[in-house]
Amino acid sequence: MKYTNLDHLLDVEMLDKISESFYEDETIDMLQFLKPEAKEKLTNWCKNIYIKNNNYKNDPLIIEYQNEIKYRKKRDEEHQFRDAFRYSFLLSVTSSKGKIEYRENKPVLDICVSKDHIERALAIVSVLIGLVKDLGGKVYVQQENKDNIIINLSTHSFSFNVREIMQKRRSLISLDQSIDRSFRPLYEEIPSGILQIEIGTVNSYWNKGNSISSCKFEDTNNSLLEDQFSSIFNFIIGETIRLEMQRYKLDKLNEKEIIEERRIHEIKRKKFEKEKVLENIESQMEKWSRSKELLSFADELEDTILGLRDDLSKKLISDYVSLVREKAESVNPIEDILNEVKSIIDEND
Amino acid sequence: MLTIEQYILQMKKRDKLDEFNFINHADNMATVIRYVMDYFNDYLDPQAYNYEKLKTDQKALKIEQEVGKTYPNSKEFIVNYYRRYITRIDKTLWKFMEEIKYIDLFFSIEDYKIIVDKFSISAKMKGTEIEQYKDSLIILAQELKENNVEKPSLSEYKYLDNTISKWLKDTYRDYKVNLYDFAYNHTDTYYDEYVEHIYDRDAKRSYYINKYNHRYNENPFDIEEVYNENINRPFINEKKGELEILCMYIWLFDQVKDSEYWPEYINLNISTERINLVKNINVLEPIINKNIKFPIDIKSTKVYLETTDGLLKCNPDSNYILRLNYKKDNDLLWKDENELMLVINNLNETFLKYGVPNVLELLPPLRSASYNEKEFFEKYGILEKGMKKYSKLKLALVNGQHRTSKKQVCLVQNVDDIVKVRNIAKEMKFKLKFSIDISNLNKQNNFSRQYEANFNKLTEIRNSIIGIHLSKIPNSYSISKVNYIEDASYLNKFNYPQNSNFFNCIIGLLNDNQARYFIPEEIKSDYELEELVDTLLRGGFSFCNQEGK
Prior knowledge:
Distance between the termini of chain B: 73 Å
Oligomer: heterodimer
Largest sheet of chain A: 6 strands, mixed
Order of helices and strands of chain A: HHHHEHEEEEEHHH
Number of helices of chain A: 8
Strand content of chain B: 5-15%
Mean pLDDT of chain A: 82
């Protein structure tokens, strides 16, 4: 079930009827705007998401993430005080022990959880990558700035991150009285084991100014994240459809604009052409007179042939006369005039 | 000059002769006979012996003079031992004792017996028949130990609680044990192991990197082990917390320069009951303002209420602190005696109805050409007299809001004003105390530039300060994770946060053992108050009535 282009699945007639405000309303079920078969397929797919037992360790993005995190840990251990030392002194200190070379962070998957829950987080991300692939989309990491995860579904992008919720030690007092006995401050934030996913839309060139819509999903008492994939994909697909609809509308608007622009452009062009022709009239008139003069010159030359006795001279003059007539023909502006008038009245018909 | 026995022993060792090797029985006998003959024929030289004896006698005299004062009971033993064996037994024994674990804590005869036993069987003293001198050695050991102990100089321990100082003094007096030295030597071993020193020769700068995680450590410096191995000592028994605090004090202030952790550390020790009798530092009493609740671990029983005429509209239902404001700029109650009497009557009525508050805060009036401190104190005297019958009631003056227009200047709005009024009050023998609204002070233009000087002035009069108002602490963290002290940089592997200078000034102002009331201002939600409280906790403040106390 691959949906690389959603636009041909949209129920176009419906789209033309709805108003602007629909796009802002987040409660509307976006699936209603699809053609019925598509809607049914997608709804069923969402309902029946099941998690195949996948080995997330094979996914290249995840392998890269694990390697990068390992590198960062080692690098930070070795270069922890990089900023504190003087630059030239730093070089001498680190070259003596340096096994780990320093380089800036390479962006990888945006996952921020404690050691105990990293396996679970990676499994979730891996499942997500698989499901997106099923839908015909792709997941990648943008190689600039910070860590990120980008989901791309039929040319619309979403940002994605996984976090573990931190809670203050103080909030555990009511659950566990012994908290008070441990020698740690109550304001300290400790990982709670509750994972949270945040998905948000990423604006494209055509909707740069618009606000971003985002949604958070987290483990609750009733359901873990692993059971919430249907809601997650409902959100993603719904947003995709909404964005697709917005773009469709925008395209239509653009089309109208383009046609209008062309029309205006055409009018301008014709005006320009007409002016050119007007300006050219006088030079055409001059050419016309020259042509006429040449012709009368040729005629008069021909008359002189009759007065000649020499056959050779007759022939020479006769040849010359044909040259003159040729010249007259070439200077004759009638062809040009025909073309000029053609160009300005062509579209009028 | 060796005795015959020593000579034979020496030759035996040299030739590796074993008299119990019966195979060489005849050879052994011949060799030993030859030793004896060599001794009497060659070695023993009366002249040399006399010369040696003279030298020995002279040296012995010198030693006698040297150790006469320091080791009076062992003087004879040392001198005689020298005459016999030509070695300074006191020096040998002391060298041995220095290496013993926990030597700083040794004080009793049993302890010295153990030392002497170990000494007798030590490698150095093997075969020297030292056992016969055991009794003398015990006396010597005691004298050596006691001579090498100094009295702890408590003037240096500014931040140590009095109970700990007393413990140090008493232990020295009763047992001649200097616990400070012990703690220092103990933490020093951790310093050697965990602190790395790097020196930048060109910039002449030292870097000290601490790799020991001393913060929030359940068992720092293996105190558990130290305690258990010394629990039989009377001055250690039931003093595990004190011992740990002493070690941590030295570590933080002397060795890794992380003194910012000290107040929080003390307060944590008290709240987890790892120590008794030590008092909290930076104590604040939380007061509820505008019904914003404090976090769950901080119990507050008092509320803050305001009035402009002395009357209260509703029952506080608990202990309270009352602020006497005045409406807008109508400070007539401080300018007109009749108004003042009216307010006093209202106050009496309120106190009768709802009970007497713990503190009556006063908003100072506005200054004018004809109204200054003198006029204020005239009116204040009337108020204090009127409130005299409420013996437990305290009167406190708050600094007013900073105003920029010159016409409406408050009588007390900056630190110099506070100090001036306080000095006048003291001169006139009034019982007026002060409550500092730190956020109001901070809004002044000059304050943020000169805050250190201002806080110093306030610290000098801090015995008169009984409460504070605080809204937020701007920039409580410092960005840098490096501590610069006297041209050296102190870094921590575990990246402890550092307080900003401004926050440190506030902490310094309030870091005695006095409890002051704390009124949060401009807080709009429970969450905001929790953030403020957490900042204060991290800075080492403690709240009385905290959960767990």
